[in-house]
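Summary for the lay section of the report: proteins are chains of building blocks that fold into shapes. Here we show the chain for WhiE I-like protein and then a coded description of the shape we predicted for it.
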Amino acid sequence: MERVRVIRLLRVREGREADFVASYQGVLDRAVRFPGHLGEQLCRSVDDPTRWLLTSEWESLESVRKWRTDPDHTALVEPMNACLHDDRWTAVFKVRDMAAQ
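The coded shape description reads as follows.
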């Protein structure tokens, strides 16, 4: 199985930071119990506090697809996305295990 990492670059609306973090916590609480979820990080830019980086690691691309189409995910990300500007970017990357080479 090939692990993948989801990277999201986000810009949170001014004054919505606390709402964003609270709604993200709801997403995270569900994600950690979802099959295939391996870990998650939320980071805030020191250069531009409106910019955030969200990463999650998954056992496989199939795990990510199942999570993205799960009804809980859809309902949980709605309040989080309401805190964001539209100029967000998301991509999925295969994780290379350099130690195994």
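Put simply, here is one thing we learned. The beta strands are 4-11, 37-44, 51-58, 89-94.
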